[in-house]
Each structure stands twice: as structure tokens, then as C-alpha cells.
Amino acid sequence: MIPDMRIRAAFALLPAALLLAACGSSDTADQPADTTSAATTETDAATGLNSRGAVEVELGETATVVQNGTTVLEISDTSLSPDGCDANTTQPGEITKQGFSATVQVGPSTITQWLWASDFYYVDADGKITKNIDTSDAEPCSGPGSNAFIDLPPNSGADGRVTLDIPNDAEVIGYHTTQGGQDIRVEWALPENVIPSLTEAPAAEQAPAAEPAAPQSPPATAPPVGFTGAPNGDPQPLVGKTIDYCMDGDMYQPGTTQFTDGTTGWTQECAGQ
Hints:
Layout: H1 2-29, E1 55-58, E2 63-67, E3 70-81, E4 95-106, E5 120-123, E6 129-131, H2 132-135, E7 157-167, E8 172-177, E9 184-189, H3 194-199, E10 225-227, E11 236-237, E12 243-246, E13 256-259, E14 264-267, H4 268-271
Parallel strand pairs: 1-9
Antiparallel strand pairs: 2-3, 3-4, 4-7, 5-6, 5-8, 8-9, 10-11, 10-14, 12-13, 13-14
């Protein structure tokens, strides 16, 4: 009788023990997953896109857009240059006009114009967006390549240049197009201080100042040739004498000369007049 009672008591305690064991194991099994958000431009490992849904690369690196396993767009050899670009006329101290050069390779789809200037935008350090259509003064940079990305056939490529009016505080250049039913977004992270470095024109080399020319003495005047006294021998240079005027008239012998020192004489200069 006593053993039967012990067995019954043990079975009665078994559910309680199992319940306690289940409660003890739930402390770790039910912990929520870490949902810390990524940084603004950190790429999602699953999609390859950043938080704005863009393929993000550094300026100069190749950006490849793949959709449904097909490469629809590849942009490479990107660079910025102010060559051929005038100053932005709306906000010249805050916006810099640049030529954005790139090589574009398109996939099987085509649109009217790839890298259309109106499809570009900029992102500052606070994540604020400014569209190129709001910064542009509609004055394109000069030079070839501005129409290279228009009406490209499928599976083709081209080198070209787009005029961008970039805010000086921009840290990212973005491109987003929905033409032809596409939804493509690419962003290029700019190197630090790249815009100020591009806008600062090198100081013109100044030629050394020309040394002032030494004062030149007036050309020496040859002394008159003649006599100051009675003619005797050949006429001689009359050093120290300067002709004041020739004494003409019937009462004077031809060649008679008045010198500036008040004396008179005869000179070949006056005789030859």
C-alpha cells in the first residue's frame, strides 16, 4: 500500500517539474533579435544597396546596377573637372559648376537619355537632399560629350560629360532615373574637400618685376669744327664750344659763328648752310 502511494505522488509532481524546466529555458530562446539600424550610407549585405536604395561607390569606382539577375547599367571612370565651366551665376560662393565625366555601358533596356542632368541630386553631411534642377543656372560647361548619352541602343556604351552645379557642402552625388519604367539609383561618395580643391584655381605665376632701366645719358654731341681765332691750318674740333647761331649777312664772312659762351669764330657747320 505504501509503495503505491509513493508512485502516485511522483506522477503528481512530474507536470510541475516539466513546467519549471520549460520556464527556465525560455530566458535565452525568446531573446529578440538585434535590430540596430545601419549608418545612412552603409550598404545592406542582402541587397547591395545603401539606406536610400542606391548602389554606392567612391567617385572613380565602377557602379554596377543589377536587377533580376541582369546588369542594366554600369558607370565607370567617373571624375569631376571645372575645365570649360564658368562660375555658377545664381550662388557662385555656395555652388560650383563641374563637368562630370563617365563611361556608361547599358544593358538590354534603353531610355531617352542616361545620366540626364535633371536626374542628379546631392547629399550633405546631415543627409539632406538638394536636386540639381534647383542648383543649375542652365549654363552648361563647354566641350565635347554633352550629348553622348542620348538614345543609346541596348547593350551599348559611350563616354560623355554632364554639367552639374554642385553645392560646396555636398558629400555625395546621386543619380536616380525612372525613365522607361526603370528605377535605378547610383550614388558616388566624394573625397573629402574635393569641391573646394577643384574650385581653387592655381595662383598665376608672376613674372619677376622688371628692373627699372638705368637712366641713359643723352647721346654725346660732336663739337663743332672750325676756328675760334684767325684761321691757321685745318679746322679742328672745338671742344667745349656749342653753336648758338650762325651769323649771316653781308657784313659777315660765311661760316661766322656765335657760340653760347659769347665768343665768336668760324665753323664748318655754319659755312655749309
